[in-house]
Design goal:
mainly alpha
């Protein structure tokens, strides 16, 4: 230790300089570490690697989102997490039967197709032999009349859907009148063929006349409307 007053080299620990008598107690005390101060006496934050300041524990650095913490609004209030909105599916059209949606030709075609459907199960042909009569319906004699059966069911079901939905849930080819005209026209052709090709030695029964008349009535208003529409275009 060197005395700051006289510059004498002092060995050992003494309270005063043996040469000049100056007290050495203040000189022998080690300087306490003081925190580094910056501008205006403010303490500088501890620095980590490469001189980057280390943030306080529990506070995320600026510019980095905090994990597991709700977002804050500009006013400082916590905003709850918003649930994800799932895409809404288009609602299917509701069924509501309204007969007012059917035109007069639609109603005639529907009722006549129902009568034709019933007539297929009635006797179409019969024979009397020695006082014994035998009868058979159209489906038994002509198997292709099952096509007529299916078409009648399809026409009735289609008209029910047409009266129940503002817009059909499925897309179908052709227009409304053309669909009915094609189905009814095919029924008329098949029924007329079955009427004319009766088995030998048999006669017609009530079912054959009822079926043929119903097929013609079902197709008639559709043909009339198609002719009128064609004349209107000309």
């Amino acid at each position: 230790m060197i005395c700051t007053q006289c510059g004498c080299n002092i060995s050992g620990r003494t309270a005063a300089c043996p040469a000049c008598g100056a007290r050495l107690a203040a000189q022998s005390m080690p300087a306490q570490s003081m925190p580094a101060q910056g501008v205006a006496g403010q303490s500088m934050p501890a620095q980590g690697v490469a001189g980057q300041s280390m943030p306080a524990q529990g506070i995320p650095p600026q510019g980095m989102p905090s994990q597991g913490m709700p977002a804050q609004s500009a006013a400082g209030r916590f905003q709850p997490a918003q649930p994800a909105h799932l895409p809404e599916h288009a609602a299917s059209p509701a069924f509501r039967l309204e007969l007012s949606r059917l035109t007069n030709s639609d109603r005639v075609t529907g009722i006549a197709s129902l009568v034709l459907l019933v007539s297929l199960f009635l006797p179409w042909y019969g024979v009397n032999l020695l006082g014994i009569s035998a009868e058979a319906d159209g489906l038994t004699v002509h198997g292709y009349l099952y096509i007529v059966l299916l078409l009648c069911v399809a026409i009735i079901a289609y008209l029910v859907m047409w009266a129940g939905f503002e817009e059909l849930p499925v897309r179908l080819p052709l227009s409304h009148q053309q669909r009915l005209l094609v189905a009814s026209g095919l029924n008329t052709v098949l029924v007329l063929l079955a009427f004319l090709t009766k088995p030998d030695g048999t006669g017609w029964r009530f079912g054959a006349f009822a079926g043929l008349l119903a097929a013609l009535i079902a197709m008639a208003p559709l043909v009339i409307r198609a002719v009128q529409a064609r004349r209107g275009r000309a």
